[in-house]
Design brief:
Elements lengths: L4 H10 L2 H13 L1 H22 L2 H22 L4 H22 L4 H28 L4 H10 L9 H34 L4 H14 L2 H17 L9
Helix pairs in contact: 2-3, 2-7, 2-10, 3-4, 3-5, 3-9, 4-5, 5-6, 6-8, 6-9, 8-9, 8-10
């Protein structure tokens, strides 16, 4: 073994699953700044709609804010991934608004349509993530595999599988709570059980309250779990 290969081997032998997952989560979520950039356009959309009841104004303000954040990222030559994610989310919401308008939906109906993509996303995310845990191949495990170079070898270690299953469930919980809270609100507003304007206001508030604050709570729980364990990554696994 060469001298250059020895430090790498030593580092791999002492690396832990917890350290790998912490690093991968930080990269995937973009840190505090990335989460803020994802939340701000939605917060402004909700605030503008509640204060003006002008859907177009709310959409323009949220898009303009995301574009400003994008320009700042470009000037700083840093990753634009998380701002683009926010813009993509707004774009999909705008598409659903236009579909509602083309079908003769009122302003309230169109505002409800803006929140539908997020509800669909969280429902799908919850189902897929939960399914990976149920079948014994938790999604977080593939984060470990992406670092070790073998995407499935981690599954041979029951200790690693248990840890990754717990962490995946912690990622599922925020999405599940959003569906359980926002789903009934959206259905009640769209079916006329409650006033559509009231439903939109409640959805906006719920989206903010159950957005990055809930995600931070989930990440704090994951950090606590990761801080307590030191599961080694074995050679070849």
């Amino acid at each position: 073994m060469t001298e250059s290969a020895q430090p790498a081997a030593q580092q791999a032998s002492v690396e832990t699953v917890e350290a790998v997952v912490r690093a991968q989560l930080a990269k995937a979520l973009g840190g505090r700044r990335g989460m803020i950039e994802a939340a701000v356009p939605t917060i402004l959309f909700t605030a503008m709609w509640l204060s003006t009841r002008e859907l177009r104004v709310a959409l323009i303000v949220s898009v303009a804010t995301a574009v400003v954040l994008l320009v700042v990222r470009v000037v700083q030559r840093s990753s634009v991934q998380f701002v683009l994610n926010a813009l993509f989310g707004i774009g999909i919401g705008w598409l659903f608004v236009n579909i509602s308008a083309s079908r003769g939906g009122s302003a309230d109906d169109q505002a409800l349509a803006y929140f539908l993509p997020g509800l669909i996303y969280n429902t799908g995310y919850t189902f897929v993530m939960a399914l990976t845990c149920i079948v014994g191949w938790p999604l977080v495990g593939f984060m470990v595999g992406s670092v070790t170079g073998d995407p499935t070898a981690w599954h041979q270690d029951r200790q690693v599988v248990r840890l990754c299953t717990l962490l995946t469930w912690l990622l599922v919980l925020p999405c599940l709570l959003r569906v359980l809270v926002q789903g009934p609100l959206w259905l009640a507003g769209s079916q006329g059980s409650i006033d559509a304007g009231t439903a939109v206001a409640a959805l906006g508030i719920a989206k903010i309250a159950l957005g990055w604050p809930l995600q931070l709570a989930a990440l704090a729980s994951m950090a606590w779990v990761l801080g307590r364990g030191h599961t080694p990554i074995e050679q070849g696994a």
